[in-house]
Amino acid sequence: MGTSSCGDGEKQRIEDEEEQYGVLLYYKYTSVPDLDELVAFYESSCNSLGLLGRVRLSTHGVNVTVGGKLSALEEHIAAAKSNCLFEGTDFKLASCQHPLNDKVSQECGFTSLSIRVVEELVTFSTCPLLKPPEVSNAGKHLSAEEFHSVLQSANEQPDGDGKSENKELVLLDARNLYETRIGKFESENVETLDPEIRQYSDLPTWIDQNAEKLKGKNVLMYCTGGIRCEMASAYIRSKGTEFENTFQLYGGIQRYLEQFPNGGFFKGKNFVFDHRISVGSSKEDIIGCCLLCNNTFDDYSPRCRCRLCRMLVLVCNHCQVKGNDYVCELCRKHGKGQVPLSLVPSSQPCESKGDDTRRKLRILCLHGFRQNASGFKGRTGSLAKKLKNIAELVFIDAPHKLQFIYQTATSPPPGACSKKFAWLVSPDFDKPSETGWTVAQSQFDPLQYQNQTEGFDKSLAYLKKAFAEKGPFDGILGFSQGAAMAAAVCGKQEQLLGEIDFRFCVLCSGFTPWPLMEKTERGSIKCPSLHIFGSQPGKDRQIVTQASSDLAGLFDEGCATIIEHDFGHIIPTKSPYIDEIKAFLNQFV
Questions:
Q1: Which residues form the Rhodanese domain (predicted)?
Q2: Is 78 helix (H, G, I), strand (E, B) or coil?
Q3: Which DSSP category does 306 fall into?
Q4: Distances in Å between the alpha carbon of 221 and those of 74, 159, 236, 406?
Q5: CA distance linking residue 251 with residue 174, whole number of Å
Q6: What's the rounded Cα separation, in Å, for the pair 197 and 205?
C-alpha cells in the first residue's frame, strides 16, 4: 500500500507539472450592487484555484488579469459566468509558459494575488475632468473581422480625388508610447495617430489638444484588450456630434491577432501586462529599435527604465550598462536630462572594471519631526557604515524651525540645545519665541502627525534648492515625517522632472501625508520604493503599523518592496534586514 501511495503521489506531481499554464484577461463595466460580495467571490475563487495576478474592483465593474493552470482558469470562468453580473463578458484565455519567479514576474504582479477595490478600473486622468465621460457613451464595438474589413476597404478604395490617403478615417492608438514602439496597426491609406503618452492618464490632455484631428472623422481606436478604449472613446464622443463616429476594436489587439494569426494590419508585437511581456503574430516581425544604437530590437525583458520618469525603454544587449542610467525619448524631447557619455555605444569594447570603481549612490536623507540633520546622521551611523560601499548619505535640516518644549513640572534646561525642525506642521504652528522654549500644552500625542497638514509648499521649494545646490541624488531616504515628505515628492515626480530628479525612494516608518490623502489612488505612484516598518502593532509608538502599510499601498506593487521588522521606531541594520536593504539599492548601482 505504501509503494502504491508513493507512486500515486509521484504521478500526481508529474501531471501537475505537465498541465498547461494560461493567462486570463477580462473586464466588465457594469453597476456592482454589492462590492463586498464581489470581493468575497474573487478571494474564494482565486485562492481555492491557485490563481495569481491582479484583480481590480469598483462600483463600476471589474478588471482582471490572472494566471494559473488552464483547468483552474476555465473553472473560474464558469463560476463567473454563473453570475448575471458578467453577462456578455469577453473572457480572453491564452495558454503560455509557466512564469518564473524572476524580476519580470514580480513587476507584473504574477508572484502573488492582489485584489483591490479602486475608484477607477483604469485611471483615465490624474486631475478631475470638467466633464467626466460616461462609459455608456463609449464608441461602437467593432469585431476583429469588422475592424479588418474597414481597413481593407480603405486600402482598396481611394478617395474622390484619386488620392491614396483616406482622409475620412484615422487610426488612434490608446496605449502608452513604450507599447506602440514594439507593435502597432499600419494601413497604407489610413493615418495613424500615436499620442506618444507616458501613461494612460495623459490621454485626455492629448485628446483635448488634438481634437481637430478627430473632428468629423471616423475614428478607429484600439488598445491591448479593449478596456482603455471604453473610457477614451466615451470622452471623445462627449465633445459633440462631430465626434460621434468613434469606434473601438472589441477585445483589442489580442482578439485581432487570434482572428488574424499572420498579423493582418498589425505589425510587430502586442505588449501585454503579464509575464509574457509581448505576444506576436506568426510573422515574428520586429519594428522596435534600441534607444541608443537604433538597431532592431523589441525585447523588454531586461526591464531597462528611464532614470528620470521610470518608463520602460528598449536597450539591446550590446548597449546595456550597469546602473540602468538611460533617458527615454519623451524626457529627451522635453529637455529633461541628457544621455551620459558612458551610454554612447562604442565600437571598441570597454576595459573591465572591478566593483571598487563603481560610482556610489548619493541618497538625500530627510529626518523625522522635531529632529535635525546632525541627530539623524548620528542615529543612522550604523546604517551608513554598512552601506559605505554602496551609498553616500547626505543629510539636511528641514525648513520649519520648531519651538523647544518642556513639561509644566519642569523648567527649561540650562544651556544651548540643538535646533529642531519639521517638514510638515500643524495649522496652529507657532514660530520659535525669542527664548526658543514653550510649555507643552498636553501630554505627547502619538497621532499628532495626522494634524500636520501645513508647510508642504515651503518644504518642496526647499528641496528643489537642495537638489540644485547639493545634487544630483540617485534617491531619497525619509524617516517618519521625512518619509511622508519623500512620499509626497514621489507623488509629484513627473511634474518635478528637471527640478527634483531621482530614481528611487526608501521610506522608513512613514505615513500618508496630507498632499497624497485626497486624490491618490492605491498603486498609482510608479517610483521604485522600499518601505521599512514594524510588523507588530504597538511596537512603534510614534507611527502605527497600519499607517505605514497604507502608505506602501499607494505605490505600484510592481516596483514596491516591503521590509517588515520586529522592532519599533527605528531603521533596522541587523541581518536579514540590512541584506534586503542592500539588495534593493544594488538594483541602482
A1: 165-265
A2: helix
A3: B
A4: 30, 21, 11, 65
A5: 14
A6: 10
Q: Which residue has the cell 521625512?
A: 482
* Gyration radius from the chain CA atoms: 27
Amino acid at 235: Y
Cell representation of residue 82: 454563473
Q: Cis peptide before 472, with omega less than 30 degrees from 0?
A: yes
Query: Closest by alpha carbon to 254, among 463, 20, 25, 496?
Result: 25
Cell of 286: 520586429
| Residue 388 to residues 91, 323, 337, 392, 574, Cα–Cα distance (Å) | 52, 17, 28, 7, 15
Q: Do 109 and 557 contact (CB within 8 A), yes or no? A: yes
Q: Is the peptide bond before 576 cis (omega within 30 degrees of 0)?
A: yes
Residue with cell 501531471: 15
Q: Within 10 A of 106 (CB to CB), how many other CB atoms are there? A: 18
Q: What is the dihedral of CA 135, 139, 143, 144, to 10 degrees?
A: -110
Cα–Cα distance measured from residue 464 to residue 29, given in angstroms and rounded to the nearest whole number: 42
pLDDT digits (tens, 9 = 90+) for 371-405: 999 999 999 999 999 999 899 999 999 999 887 55
**Whole-angstrom Cα distance, residue 264 to residue 225?**
17
Give the SS3 label for residue 422.
Answer: strand
Question: Which H helix or E strand runs over 583?
Answer: helix 577-586
The three cell numbers of residue 430 are 507657532
Shortest CA distance to 64 belongs to which of 45, 82, 48? 45
DSSP string covering 537-579, please? TTTSSSS-HHHHHHHHHTB-GGGEEEEEESSSSS---STTHHH
Amino acid at 575: S
Let me know: does 573 contact 382? Beta carbons within 8 Å. Answer: yes
Contact 291, 326 (CB under 8 A): yes
- Residue appearing with cell numbers 548619493: 362
User: Coil, helix or strand for 458?
Assistant: helix
Query: In one letter, which amino acid is 263?
Result: G
Residues 6+ away with beta carbon under 8 Å from 518: none
**Grid cell in block for residue 305:** 527604465
Amino acid letter, 271: F
Rounded Cα gap, residues 251 and 259, in angstroms: 11
C-alpha cell at 457: 509648499
CA neighbours closer than 13 Å in the CB half-sphere of residue 147 = 32
Q: Which residues are annotated as catalytic? A: 223
Q: What are the pLDDT digits (tens) for 534-586? A: 877 656 667 888 888 889 989 987 778 899 888 888 899 988 899 889 988 98
- C-alpha span between 456 and 507 (Å, rounded): 17
Burial of residue 196, with CB atoms counted within 10 A of its CB: 0-12 exposed, 13-18 middle, 19 or more buried: middle
Give pLDDT < 50 ranges for the chain: 1-6, 13-15, 17, 160-164, 339-357, 406-417, 432-437, 439-446
- What length is written for the chain? 589
Neighbours of 68 (CB within 10 A): 24
How many CB atoms neighbour CB 183 within 10 A?
28
